């Protein structure tokens, strides 16, 4: 491969020189033989005849160690003793001597074998298992100049030409393949030939890093078959047919759209027959549904030939297509380029089964789709009750540049064995075209193989020469078998090349002139295979021509049909999403209050612990307090509000899943969703016991790996599978969410618009200025608001019966200040006919704040209860001033609008300063902006100075988002200009917060005091 292209011959020479200097063949051989003469069969002839039928003794069963320098003397003594009395030595040695003596009678060549030779041969076999892949012919371009490890040189072990026809026995206890006890004695030549075939052919196997004998043996059995595996004529015809489809597809696109970018598969056309074989084999082994994630390279080919998206649709999209029009609505979003689109179809398999395939839409950001695919797969497993995870499988196709380069690959791999994230193994295929855009592997990674990162996870890796379609098919088949057998990840690395530039209009010779000189004259995989089959006589020229013309005529028919192609209904409406509304189909707002008796019942369930359970003392107190809250209906805190939301959704039949770092206890030690018995260590999760015989996964709360990108991506994928689930990801501190920025930018905020896929994922981001420094204060609210697409200057229809504002907006951003409102905003996610992501700036100090409490009556749906307003009980987008103000309050001199925990500080300061002429309103939902409610408050206080107060610096927080919208609301009421929006908050700053606690306190006190100061506030 390319990374060793330079300088390797020098390295090789050096290695050879070292070997010849340090180990003379002749001397070594002579010494060995001389030392072990006593094993010559002649010595034991008479005894051998009288000995019982010999059986091989695996070296591993020999109980004594004979690996040191004194072995030969020791052995001689042992042998002499054994000759005198076979019972005087250990049984294993008895067997050993009998074995050699016995075999010698029928097999004269073995007579010269010594234990040391046996050991050395064993090491040589082992070396092939470990390093054989280094000698495998993997590079179709033959440009690789990898030094072959000297471990693969028989001379290193003392073998010479003269030994080639001697017979050896190398059986080892409980090892399969070459070293198996059942293998017959073979000549060194035969052993070496087969080792070369098995390990140094067109597939390089890397598996010896797996510390599991059973798994290695399984692989050895498959790799070290006595004779190489061969496909019969029928299979070869299928493979040929598939390779022709793959090749013709690209040729066809290239001729019809000469100047279009398609990121073709040329140079790795064998991927298609490989994938198809993998899917067929998987279906035979019980897989019913496959979720696929892949980037640009070959995506159209996979869509057309593997997933079976109608070719006419692909061609129509390629021609620029018509923007799809939904049967029942007009929402078409912004769309995306053709090589990012996803789809799903049912595909028949070679074995006569059907398999459901979905290719997940993805952004340009390489590998970002990986955790999404895995999460979606896991959700499919949950919903199809696939407890052993054999029916639903994820497949990820990677590039050789992106696989080692993008950290999310590793983050995703690391989810693979976690109980709440595993999917029973993902199959990874790397389209290793030995270049990334213009970057050579030597500049793109530090590891030998692009797949080395997967070795950390004990994943077998099959490197395969992409020019050898049968080898690719074989590796893919083996990967499918591995996954269904061991339920862990596996990697197929197809070493290939890229016939053209990064895309079809790129010139690759600018940067890889030598490589492309070779590529220009290199036969395609199809040409190579056709030649091979014709030479074998298994397939005739007519057969080949027949397939070629069949494929071409179908492609032409589809091309013609593409001209009249009318996109059908959205595929996202299928399956579980049937009946869900698209953004412009009005979905009525529903109440989210719950019957008081249900609240009481679930409240009891989530606060009661099993009798014998012994929680930590402090936790016990917390649960006693919680029980009291439910009993009295007063003082419900944040954690109980959240648990009530989960519990009520569960009893309504929804699946609830919360994951993130330390979410079980909660970063701030407030949730205690999982309790630990202090004596036994047993765990108890009250929300698992809300209903009788509750499915244990129906409520899932799970600490995650320390990954934001991977885990958020996973939960996003999970949430997209079924709308009847509340899926939440919580960041440890909101600040760390930026580690998952790609998921926010490319998926969560824009996925619906680009790909027409909805998700109701909830993201909890602890946010608030408590003096914990720059990295534990801000969840970067401003970024989420900046990505929000509600119009700052146009007030949409706000009539409750006609309002689609929230449906038309890309997501919701809230900063909620009461447990009851939190309860309702979570429930609202499910109690509506569409799904929208919800970003929650979640509290830290409000978790225990004495005033941040709600009464149970604010959760119920009883008319007249505190939470109940004109429409019933539901989430309050704005909480009006808590003083009993009438509809018109002319005496109020200032209206402070704010959001989040600063409200409580403002309220306290107002009380302290007796600011009765100040009203404070909380904008609980920042996006989409609650124009109607803000205007209601503006009208209520016609003479008030309007202030936006925030604790974040001016260039952060909600200010830049709020100002234009507030102005639009005011302007519509004839209420002043931008100048009239007063700002109270921190000054602009580079860091989110000060690192000095005293400075924090001073800043916080000042801003709170300023907000309620008697004098008017100057304009910003
Ligand atoms: C995260 C990310 N960084 C950079 C790019 C720009 N880019 C697009 S393709 C590409 C090269 C990818 O190389 P490789 O993974 O080997 O795939 P190939 O195109 O060779 O199939 C790059 C750098 C991107 N799409 N995503
Ligand atoms: Mg590449």
UniProtKB/TrEMBL annotation:
<dbReference type="InterPro" id="IPR011603">
    <property type="entry name" value="2oxoglutarate_DH_E1"/>
</dbReference>
<keyword id="KW-0809">Transit peptide</keyword>
<dbReference type="InterPro" id="IPR005475">
    <property type="entry name" value="Transketolase-like_Pyr-bd"/>
</dbReference>
<dbReference type="Pfam" id="PF16078">
    <property type="entry name" value="2-oxogl_dehyd_N"/>
</dbReference>
<dbReference type="GO" id="GO:0005759">
    <property type="term" value="C:mitochondrial matrix"/>
</dbReference>
<dbReference type="GO" id="GO:0004591">
    <property type="term" value="F:oxoglutarate dehydrogenase (succinyl-transferring) activity"/>
</dbReference>
<keyword id="KW-0496">Mitochondrion</keyword>
<dbReference type="InterPro" id="IPR029061">
    <property type="entry name" value="THDP-binding"/>
</dbReference>
<keyword id="KW-0460">Magnesium</keyword>
<dbReference type="GO" id="GO:0030976">
    <property type="term" value="F:thiamine pyrophosphate binding"/>
</dbReference>
<comment type="similarity">
    <text>Belongs to the alpha-ketoglutarate dehydrogenase family.</text>
</comment>
<dbReference type="Pfam" id="PF02779">
    <property type="entry name" value="Transket_pyr"/>
</dbReference>
<dbReference type="InterPro" id="IPR042179">
    <property type="entry name" value="KGD_C_sf"/>
</dbReference>
<dbReference type="Pfam" id="PF00676">
    <property type="entry name" value="E1_dh"/>
</dbReference>
<keyword id="KW-0479">Metal-binding</keyword>
<dbReference type="Pfam" id="PF16870">
    <property type="entry name" value="OxoGdeHyase_C"/>
</dbReference>
<keyword id="KW-0816">Tricarboxylic acid cycle</keyword>
<dbReference type="GO" id="GO:0006099">
    <property type="term" value="P:tricarboxylic acid cycle"/>
</dbReference>
<dbReference type="InterPro" id="IPR001017">
    <property type="entry name" value="DH_E1"/>
</dbReference>
<feature type="domain" description="Transketolase-like pyrimidine-binding">
    <location>
        <begin position="636"/>
        <end position="849"/>
    </location>
</feature>
<comment type="function">
    <text>The 2-oxoglutarate dehydrogenase complex catalyzes the overall conversion of 2-oxoglutarate to succinyl-CoA and CO(2). It contains multiple copies of three enzymatic components: 2-oxoglutarate dehydrogenase (E1), dihydrolipoamide succinyltransferase (E2) and lipoamide dehydrogenase (E3).</text>
</comment>
<keyword id="KW-0560">Oxidoreductase</keyword>
<dbReference type="GO" id="GO:0045252">
    <property type="term" value="C:oxoglutarate dehydrogenase complex"/>
</dbReference>
<dbReference type="InterPro" id="IPR032106">
    <property type="entry name" value="2-oxogl_dehyd_N"/>
</dbReference>
<dbReference type="GO" id="GO:0046872">
    <property type="term" value="F:metal ion binding"/>
</dbReference>
<protein>
    <recommendedName>
        <fullName>2-oxoglutarate dehydrogenase, mitochondrial</fullName>
        <ecNumber>1.2.4.2</ecNumber>
    </recommendedName>
</protein>
<keyword id="KW-0786">Thiamine pyrophosphate</keyword>
<dbReference type="InterPro" id="IPR031717">
    <property type="entry name" value="ODO-1/KGD_C"/>
</dbReference>
């Amino acid at each position: 491969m390319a990374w060793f292209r330079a300088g390797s011959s020098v390295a090789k020479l050096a290695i050879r020189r070292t070997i010849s200097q340090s180990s003379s063949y002749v001397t070594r051989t002579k010494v060995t033989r001389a030392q072990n003469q006593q094993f010559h069969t002649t010595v034991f002839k008479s005894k051998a005849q009288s000995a019982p039928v010999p059986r091989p003794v695996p070296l591993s069963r020999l109980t004594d160690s004979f690996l040191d320098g004194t072995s030969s003397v020791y052995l001689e003594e042992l042998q002499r003793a054994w000759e005198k009395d076979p019972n005087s030595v250990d049984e294993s040695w008895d067997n050993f001597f009998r074995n050699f003596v016995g075999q010698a009678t029928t097999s004269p060549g073995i007579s010269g074998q010594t234990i040391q030779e046996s050991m050395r041969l064993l090491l040589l076999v082992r070396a092939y298992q470990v390093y054989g892949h280094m000698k495998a012919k993997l590079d179709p371009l033959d440009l690789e100049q990898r030094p072959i490890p000297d471990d693969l040189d028989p001379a290193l072990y003392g073998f010479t030409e003269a030994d080639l026809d001697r017979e050896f026995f190398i059986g080892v206890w409980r090892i399969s393949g070459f070293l198996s006890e059942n293998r017959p004695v073979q000549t060194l030549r035969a052993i070496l030939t087969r080792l070369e075939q098995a390990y140094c052919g067109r597939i390089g196997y890397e598996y010896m890093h797996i510390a599991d004998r059973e798994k290695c043996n399984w692989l050895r059995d498959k790799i070290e078959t006595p004779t190489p595996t061969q496909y019969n004529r029928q299979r070869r015809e299928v493979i040929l047919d598939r390779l022709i489809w793959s090749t013709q597809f690209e040729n066809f696109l290239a001729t019809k759209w000469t100047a279009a970018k398609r990121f073709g598969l040329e140079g790795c056309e064998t991927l298609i027959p490989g994938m198809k074989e993998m899917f067929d084999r998987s279906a035979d082994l019980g897989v019913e549904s496959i979720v696929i994630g892949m980037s640009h390279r070959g995506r159209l080919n996979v869509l057309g030939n593997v997933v079976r998206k109608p070719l006419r649709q692909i061609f129509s999209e390629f021609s620029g297509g018509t923007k799809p029009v939904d049967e029942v609505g007009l929402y078409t979003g912004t769309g995306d380029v053709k090589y990012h689109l996803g789809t799903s179809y049912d595909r028949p398999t070679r074995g006569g089964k059907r398999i459901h395939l979905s290719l997940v839409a993805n952004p340009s950001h390489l590998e970002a789709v990986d955790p999404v695919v895995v999460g979606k797969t896991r959700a499919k497993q949950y919903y199809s009750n696939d407890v052993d995870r054999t029916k639903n499988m994820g497949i990820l196709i990677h590039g050789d540049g992106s696989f080692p380069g993008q950290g999310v690959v590793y983050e995703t791999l690391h989810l693979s064995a976690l109980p709440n994230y595993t999917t029973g193994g993902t199959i990874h295929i790397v389209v290793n075209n030995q270049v990334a855009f213009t970057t050579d592997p030597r500049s793109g990674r530090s590891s030998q193989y692009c797949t080395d990162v997967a070795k950390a996870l004990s994943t077998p890796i099959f490197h395969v020469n992409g020019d050898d379609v049968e080898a690719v098919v074989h590796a893919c088949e083996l990967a499918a078998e591995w996954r269904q057998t061991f339920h862990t990840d596996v990697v197929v690395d197809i070493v290939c090349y890229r016939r053209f530039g990064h895309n079809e209009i790129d010139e690759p010779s600018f940067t890889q002139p030598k490589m492309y000189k070779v590529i220009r004259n290199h036969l395609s995989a199809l040409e190579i295979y056709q030649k091979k089959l014709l030479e074998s006589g298994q397939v005739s020229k007519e057969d080949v021509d027949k397939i070629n013309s069949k494929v071409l005529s179908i492609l032409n028919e589809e091309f013609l049909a593409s001209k009249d192609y009318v996109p059908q209904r959205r595929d996202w409406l299928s399956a579980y999403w049937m009946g869900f509304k698209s953004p412009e189909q009005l979905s009525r707002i529903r109440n989210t209050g719950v019957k008081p008796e249900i609240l009481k019942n679930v409240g009891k369930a989530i606060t009661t612990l099993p009798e014998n359970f012994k929680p930590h003392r402090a936790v016990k107190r917390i649960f006693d307090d919680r029980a009291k809250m439910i009993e009295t209906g007063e003082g419900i805190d944040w954690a109980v509000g959240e648990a009530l939301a989960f519990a009520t959704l569960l009893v309504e039949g929804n699946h609830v899943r919360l994951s993130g770092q330390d979410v079980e206890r909660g970063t701030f030690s407030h949730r205690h969703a999982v309790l630990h018995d202090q004596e036994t260590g047993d765990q108890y999760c009250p929300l698992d016991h809300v209903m009788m015989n509750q499915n244990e996964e129906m409520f899932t709360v799970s600490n995650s790996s320390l990954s934001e990108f991977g885990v958020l991506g996973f939960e996003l994928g999970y949430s997209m599978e079924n709308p009847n689930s509340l899926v939440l990801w919580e960041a440890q501190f909101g600040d760390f969410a930026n580690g998952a920025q790609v998921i926010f930018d490319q998926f969560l905020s824009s996925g619906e618009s680009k790909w027409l896929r909805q998700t109701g994922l909830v993201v909890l981001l602890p946010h608030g200025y408590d003096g914990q420094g720059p990295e534990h204060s801000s969840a970067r609210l401003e970024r989420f608001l900046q990505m929000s697409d509600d119009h700052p200057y146009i007030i949409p229809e706000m009539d409750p019966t006609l309002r689609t504002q929230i449906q038309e907006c890309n997501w919701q951003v809230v900063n909620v200040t009461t447990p009851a409102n939190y309860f309702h905003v979570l429930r609202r996610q499910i109690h509506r006919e569409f799904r929208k992501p919800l970003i929650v700036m979640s509290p830290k100090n409000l978790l225990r704040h004495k005033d941040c409490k709600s009464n149970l009556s604010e959760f119920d749906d009883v008319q007249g209860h505190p939470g109940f307003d004109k429409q019933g009980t539901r989430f309050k987008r704005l909480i009006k001033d808590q003083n009993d103000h009438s509809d018109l309050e002319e005496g109020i001199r200032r209206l402070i609008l704010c959001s989040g925990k600063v409200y409580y500080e403002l309220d306290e300061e107002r009380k302290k300063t007796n600011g009765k002429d100040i009203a404070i309103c909380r904008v609980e939902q920042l996006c989409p902006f609650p124009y109607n409610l803000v205007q209601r408050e503006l009208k209520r206080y016609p003479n008030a100075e309007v202030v936006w107060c925030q604790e974040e610096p001016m260039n952060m927080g909600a200010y830049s988002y709020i100002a234009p919208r507030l102005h639009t609301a005011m302007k519509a009421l004839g209420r002043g200009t931008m100048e009239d929006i007063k700002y109270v908050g921190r000054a602009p700053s580079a860091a989110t917060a000060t690192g000095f606690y005293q400075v924090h306190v001073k800043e916080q006190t000042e801003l709170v005091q300023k907000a309620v100061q008697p004098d008017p506030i100057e304009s910003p």
